[in-house]
Amino acid sequence: MNLDPCLAVTELTGTEAVAAHRIGGGSTGAVFEVELADGDIVVAKALGEPRPGCTGAEAAGLSWLAEPRAAAVPTVRGHDDTWIVIEHIEPGEPTPQAAERFGRELAELHAAGAQSHGAAPAGGPVQAWIGRAPMLNKPEPDWPAFYANHRVEPYLRTAVDIGALTAADGAVLSRALDVIPDVAGPVEPPSRLHGDLWSGNVHFGRDGRAWLLDPAAHGGHRETDLAMLALFSAPYLERILAAYNERSPLAPGWQDRVALHQLFPLLVHCVLFGRSYAAQSVSAARAVLSLR
Asked: Exactly one of 81, 169, 196, 214 is catalytic; which is it?
């Protein structure tokens, strides 16, 4: 495994890398800004542990999200089993104007669609990842079946097995799992989702745009991306949602379904981080049950 960022970037981009410094990373890996001999700067990320197909899934996801030319997505410069190299975006500050533009662009991205609920990005693997957790992209005939079978139930089962949720917690969440078809809202076509759209994966650039990073992209319900934005309080969230809804009106009752769409990321957090997310997961499940 090559862990030298300059060597990896040189091999993957075909341009000599002359300097690198670490800017982030933790349990999931390391992130470097790397200067190239031609003066360009790229960002290189290395996995901190083996996750087969992870970099390939991220590269395919970024390319798939960039394809409609709706939202701002950094260009993938190269990847292998350990590294992914992407375009560097100069950081800026969140502004109301950038948030509103992002809301409109996200609506256009979602409208680009996907082949089915659960579809992997073109060229992406069926077995993908969300952070350090495996994530299956498996098409289903409708969104409730996909969401229940491949976004809630696997993480619920794992969270109970590892003790992140008690048996009583699991019982509440199981009841919520059972009612998903009844509370999913109006049928919608599959949207082109980022899939892990918490605020840390929305990078506000100096150019006044919000850039999408680190996707767990797949075909799904557009309310899932919006619920993820709300889970960890994206900057100017109300501006984002208002601009989104103006460009692509959401179905009646979407605010009531936020907890439904947050079940997936909350359970992933239970699996990755333990009982610190148990109470929030159970609260979301009770909110889902109240929709019946």
From this structure: 196
